[in-house]
Amino acid sequence: MTGLMKPGALHVGVALLLLAANFLLPEYHHGAMARVLTLAVFAMGYNVMFGYAGLLSLGHALFFAAGLYGMGLPMQHLGLAAEPAFLLGIFSGALVAAVVGALALRTAGVAFMIVTLMFAQAGYLTILYFLEYTRGDEGFVIAREARTVFGLDLAAPEVRYLAAWLLFTVAMFVVLALVRSPAGRVLVAIRENEERARMLGYDVARYKLGAIVVSGALCGAAGAAYGLLFGYVGATFASVQYSILPLLWVLLGGAGTVLGPLLGATFMFYLIDLSSGITDAYMLIAGAALVALTLFAPAGLLGELRRRACPWLP
Amino acid sequence: MALLEVRGIDAFHGKVQALRGVSLAVGAGEILCVMGRNGAGKTTTMKAIMGLVPVRAGSVTLAGEELVGLKPHEIPKKGIGYVPQGRRLFAELTVAENLEVGLMTRSTGEATRERMLEMFPRLRDRLRQRAGTLSGGEQQMLAMARALCLEPSVLLMDEPTEGLQPSMIALIREAALEMKSRGVAIVLVEQRADAVLQIADRVTFLDNGRTAETVEAAALRADPGLLHRHVGV
């Protein structure tokens, strides 16, 4: 198999494996994996910006929340159907990302991180401020009867898993196509050496903004899907914790790898899930595992695999 | 007539003035070497031409078109390629991908790529290797090939022989001569006179951010004392 065919085969294989899991997983893990797949899309969005374009954001909860509320508020207050609400969620994520990106890209490095963090905090406080519509911290539940797409009940476990799988699979192939496209190469070139990319005639700011908008759209899609699949919209998802989590998932799985976010999100989810069954101090176990991984696999799980054995891994 | 003409430019690093009225000129199919001691302003001059260091006075023209005031990414599209000091490749990308990134802003694609691989045949054997794993000489070849993918009329090279063994330096010289024969104007920044004096047409000496003198390379070859006076070698 040629180096060009391997990545395609690998990603098709992963998609099929996850599809098969729908029929094989026990009930608890079936539900958990639907959640993990949705959150992995969030992490993939983060990875486009951080792993490929080299932009370290601390405010991605804002893009996830933009999708969540962009979908949830019109459904709750305007009675919008799930299908257009989902599209509105994606659009909200992209739009918020475009605005934040246009302003934050005037800065770089640590200042960029701080600016994105501040935007996310402003978003979080805005959600709390408009309590009347958002119900603040408490959030609101989207009624089960409203959560139907093309007549399918998204609250039903089978449908929910397949919807999460479909979203993940589409997102995975979108990201794969992006990173293997000429634009994807330019993003990596910018990450590697911004000045050199500029000296080859690339408008670096435009490419970075493009990466932020794609990232925002993916995170918005994840947020909107999360609300639809699990029926809850709350301010917690706009908190700083949800800006740090995708960073951790991506670092664990391997920044700049297409499948790293899935691996990182799965690993982290089950690490916390299993360790919390052993002790109340489960974050201590999670922390120790993270430190060990950082020491022994600084490029993340798939990053290390690519470095040591599979240089063709996208 | 000069293809690239730098006239009396002043440039600053923050509040510190790095260039004071620097001037130089290079014509099509000519190799101009820029020499000077450390801190003389050689690299800053290259960066000022490329718009990476703001020019506050003077002008930089390419075939009569003013470049000062353009955004840095617009200048390569006008026809100036730049190989910076230290090569600065995209280490995580393969050789083929590095060339692809160089080619994407031009429509000549495949033909240009083939010409680059003919000029630097070693790169053909390394197409799928990550650029960061190449030897110093191969990295320099790739840096040059990538800059030449833009089909520039002027090529700026900042210390291309730095840290290379003599056989590699000879290859770089050959490549420069081939580009010269194709009519490309080349500006070579160098510390090592022995590496480039044989192929240069003229030499501009910089001293403390100013243009000290421009002399024919033949005169320098005949009178090493001139070289000693300007760069202390």
- Overall CATH architecture of the domain at 4-84 and 152-231 in chain B: 3-Layer(aba) Sandwich
Morphology of chain B: globular
Helix/strand order of chain A: HHHHHHEEEHHHHEHHHH
Tally of distinct domains of chain A: 1
Mean pLDDT across all amino acids of chain B: 87
DSSP summary: helix tally of chain B: 10
Distance between the termini of chain A: 16 Å
Helix percentage range of chain A: over 70%
Structural class designation of chain A: mainly alpha
Q: Biggest interface and which pair forms it?
A: A-B, 21 and 28 residues
What is the total tally of β strands of chain A?
4
Q: What value does the Rg of chain A take, in angstroms?
A: 19 Å
Keywords (chain B): Amino-acid transport, ATP-binding, Nucleotide-binding, Transport
Domain ABC transporter (chain B): 4-233
Organism (chain B): Albimonas pacifica
Family (chain B): Belongs to the ABC transporter superfamily.
Structure report:
The longest helix of chain A has 27 residues, at 204-230. Chain A is 74% helix and 3% strand. By secondary structure, chain A is an all-alpha fold. In chain A, strands 1-4 form a two-stranded antiparallel ribbon. A two-stranded antiparallel sheet of chain A has the order 2-3. In chain A, strand 2 (148-149) and strand 3 (152-153) form a beta hairpin. The model of chain A has no long low-confidence stretch (mean pLDDT 92). Chain A is globular and about 55 Å long. Chain A has 14 helices and four strands. Chain A has one domain. The two termini of chain B are 32 Å apart. Chain B has ten helices and ten strands. In chain B, helix 7 (166-181) links the parallel strand 7 (154-158) and strand 8 (185-189). Chain B has 233 residues and is α/β, with parallel strands linked by helices. The model of chain B has no long low-confidence stretch (mean pLDDT 87). Chain B has a domain at 4-84 and 152-231: Rossmann fold. In chain B, the strands form two sheets. Chain B has a six-stranded mixed sheet, sandwiched between helices. In chain B, strands 2-1-4-5 form a four-stranded antiparallel sheet, covered by helices on one side. Chain B has helices at 42-49, 74-78, 95-103, 109-119, 121-124, 136-148, 166-181, 193-196, 217-222, 224-231, and strands at residues 4-13, 16-26, 31-35, 55-62, 65-66, 80-83, 154-158, 185-189, 202-207, 210-216. In chain B, helix 3 runs parallel beside helix 6. Chain B is 36% helix and 27% strand. The A-B interface holds A 3, 182, 185-186, 188-189, 191-193, 195-204, 256, 311 and B 50, 52, 71-74, 76-77, 82, 84, 88-93, 97, 100-102, 104-105, 128, 130, 146-147, 149-150.
